[in-house]
Amino acid sequence: MVVTMHFRNPRLVQYFVRNFSLWSMKKDPYLESALSKNRRWIVNNQIKNIILRCPDQVATVRFIQKKFKTLDLQGKALNWLKKYPCCFQVYLQGDKYYCQLTKRMMGLVEEEESVKDMQEPVFVERLAKLLMMSSNKRLNVVKLNELKRNLGFPDDYLIRLVPKYSDMFQIVNYSGRRSSMEIELVSWNPDLAVSAIEASAHKQGTEPCFTCSLPSTWVKSWERFHEFNATPYISPYLDSKGLVEGSKEMEKRTVGLVHELLSLTLWKKASISKLGHFQREFVLPERLNVLLLKHPGIFYVSNKYQIYTVVLREGYNGQGLVDKDPLVVVKEKFGELMQEGLHEYNRRRHLVNLEKKKKKGMVLGRPNEGKDRSSEMSDPDDQGDRGGLFDPEERKRFYKVLFDDGAP
């Protein structure tokens, strides 16, 4: 039976075509798992920053509750904070609950700041490389702020880096509007105009080319990759003005540019919508998603949680990063501390529930024991508080924030 669908609205047709094409990439379970890993990290990291900005680095739980709206969370802040006793210390003083970071958490904060100080030369190189790839050697500050966490930049990178390296960067505003403030490259450094592809080829003593990370059974995809890879590599640091839009050379340059952009990020991934904001600056095609889907051996496109993300395949081995930035190592310690506290919280809840059942004279069988263990692993919310991530609509908003912010 053949079903024919007729659409009178051209926009509706375009919508279905666009969404069908985005779904056409076969799912990679390892990379999908990598995208969902540590999904609560971003919220706790934001709570950490809220507390650090408070006087004496102590916040009232009521204040954090108000901030829950900006974090796209519902439910009680007190319940959330108590789930992570290794990260947050909650105490009652008078008739108010207060929260501060634990000693172990403060230790990680200090370690992260120490790593950022040591990584300053790396941040300078990343910023310079971004500007060198842009068409006019300038980038809008508002747009760049959307990628700063992907790149590992400290929140005060404008104050910390630009004035200190005035021989490389300067702040300009040619229109006078506040939203038009830009960072401009002052001097070109040829030593930095080397892409990750070129650096790898130099080490191996080969010509620069892309690598393909697909199963050998993907015969047609491999054939298309070899055909694409056979043409000369075009560095993203070369001026694109001489290239014709829609040509094979332009496609080669664009693939190389996105590859280089992802190589500069901490997690070798970025939101496609965020990359699209730099369409003019990096001379990207209007339908960037279509181009990325044409190269499944180089990029993996996911629509997990309805946020389209592009991942650099070669950056991962299974669900783990091949090369971990020092900042990633610290952030993973934060995630381990979160998990340790969550495990302790669930263990205590499990024991309390067991004690309640014993008092009621209930006999626990294996099914209940298995259920308790599974609930311990799944981090159940309090029975009286079913908001937050358990609410479908709230979960959508939460994941939108998570993956539109650039997972750590």
Automatic annotation (TrEMBL):
<dbReference type="InterPro" id="IPR045040">
    <property type="entry name" value="PORR_fam"/>
</dbReference>
<feature type="domain" description="PORR">
    <location>
        <begin position="26"/>
        <end position="342"/>
    </location>
</feature>
<protein>
    <submittedName>
        <fullName>Protein ROOT PRIMORDIUM DEFECTIVE 1</fullName>
    </submittedName>
</protein>
<dbReference type="Pfam" id="PF11955">
    <property type="entry name" value="PORR"/>
</dbReference>
<feature type="region of interest" description="Disordered">
    <location>
        <begin position="361"/>
        <end position="393"/>
    </location>
</feature>
<dbReference type="InterPro" id="IPR021099">
    <property type="entry name" value="PORR_domain"/>
</dbReference>
<dbReference type="GO" id="GO:0003723">
    <property type="term" value="F:RNA binding"/>
</dbReference>
